[in-house]
Amino acid sequence: MNLQVTKPTDNLMQHWPLLCHRIIDHAALIHGRQEVVTQSVEGPIHRTTYAAIRDRALRVAQKLDLDGIAVGDRVATLAWNTWRHLECWYGIMGTGAICHTVNPRLFPEQIAWIINDAADRIVMTDITFVPLLEKLADKMPGVERYIVLTDNAHMPQTSLKNAVAYEDWIADVDGSYRWHVGDENAASAMCYTSGTTGNPKGVVYTHRTNVLHAMMGNTGDAMALTATGTILPVVPMFHANSWGLAFAAPFVGAKMVMPGPKLDGASVYNLLQAEKVTVTAGVPTVWQMLLGYIEANKLALPHLKLVVCGGSAMPRAMIEAFLQLGVTPRQAWGMTETSPMGTMSVLKPPVTDLPDNEKIDFLTAQGYPPFGVELKITDDAGASLPRDGRTYGRLKIRGLAVVRRYYGSDAEILDEDGYFDTGDVATIDPHGYMRITDRAKDVIKSGGEWISSIELENLAVSHPAVMEAAVIGLPHPKWNERPLLVIQLKSGMTVTAEQVLDFMEGKIAKWWMPSSVVFVDAMPHTATGKIMKTTLRDQFKNFRFPV
Length: 547
Ligand code: AMP
Known about the structure:
Layout: H1 21-30, E1 35-39, E2 45-49, H2 50-66, E3 74-78, H3 83-94, E4 98-101, H4 108-118, E5 120-125, H5 130-136, E6 145-148, E7 164-165, H6 166-171, E8 187-192, E9 202-206, H7 207-217, E10 230-233, H8 245-252, E11 255-258, H9 265-274, E12 279-282, H10 284-297, E13 306-310, H11 316-324, E14 328-334, E15 341-344, H12 356-363, E16 373-378, E17 393-399, E18 420-428, E19 434-439, E20 444-446, E21 449-451, H13 453-461, E22 466-476, E23 480-489, H14 497-504, E24 516-519, H15 533-539
Parallel strand pairs: 1-11, 3-4, 3-5, 4-8, 5-6, 6-7, 10-11, 10-12, 12-13, 13-14, 23-24
Antiparallel strand pairs: 1-2, 8-9, 14-15, 16-17, 17-18, 18-19, 20-21, 22-23
The structure holds adenosine monophosphate (AMP).
């Protein structure tokens, strides 16, 4: 290693590049018998170990090498959370190629668009997505081969180019491969933002940012994984690196429970119970389904200690429901662009001394950043705003695993101090707790004053009949814009608009009260489980508030 020594005290420690394969090497050596359990796509529960996963990841790397995949080439995965996906993940990164996790919930045209944009040479996919890819294959001429993550017995008949069953593909090599040792700043993985307007943008992570992000995630006040714990990442590996969990779990040797394609309340509950899961992570819609199932069947969660919830705001009612079940709720805020950890809502002094009700107020905030993340809020001109917990501003972030530039773009996206504009609007309080009030593009301005749609939504979903709530701003002749509350009720529940408004009355400022309430049968969602406000705005564009 050629490290320059300019002073007699410089660079006297080892240089140990932070490469992703080192995580699975460590897991195999120290926690080799630790289990990875999967609800397989084919049906049965599958059990393997970190040692076996490393062995087979080496075979993946060896095969990619033989297939001519070179350092820096992109290999896509369009797949559920399974042990095979984990093997591909480490195998791809271990050859020096870039693991491009593709979100199957994107519109088909967007899937083809991002696979072409990334110039993926190989696509690894589950049997679930073979029909989808067959329809898109003509639009993706650059893909040289499709590897279907299954065995010979379950391999479907397919027209996909050079398709092969994964188990057959890795069967003819022995894994005698040495991981590619490159620069820790080289690309390891990529993920596209689920842009609701315009084309998605590619974020390219490096080995160094992935390893450091895993370290950050494994701190006690973050995901808090340990070798004695069991993690169920409901969050998919294609949603911002499964929030780092596919790195963080083998890093500490935590048992992993992979849910495969089944994310409904009953399936998640059964896995939590059967595998004695201690930590789990996912978006609010998943927890809504789980809590609904638990409530309907009068169940308990005796093993679960921590539920991490991110991607959209965690409503107070959900926080209280988990607390009642004896589970610590921990809200996380982040973005594809931030690897994704930005903040975690965890109590720290002096808020730990507050009465319970006020502590919950802090749990409804998005939380404070761990070491490695720095936040600020600014006005539209970029001037910093006070951290008083009241002043709203554009939320900006810099840190050890935050994007510098989008893939294939020369556009400068950082300010002069290196901060990235998140597009969120937030407050930061004197203790460091950040609270998102809105996406900048969803902000409602009524009579020149801001109304926080998130706060109204959180309040509306605490009504026992409400499943999901979204607030959008619509034109108003007097106030310029007023909030419309859109509600999807829980199945079998009925409630009137007046009853919802009565419930909200007195809990928020009078002028924040929604001007109207409408009900929908199904709330539209984005590919990462967020409520699609663009669709709602379109749906209600002809709506007029009663005067
Ligand atoms: P994505 O890149 O798909 O993960 O989306 C990132 C965006 O999701 C953020 O900029 C926020 O607008 C939103 N988001 C993520 N976590 C939260 C949270 N805990 N509360 C509110 N919004 C969130």
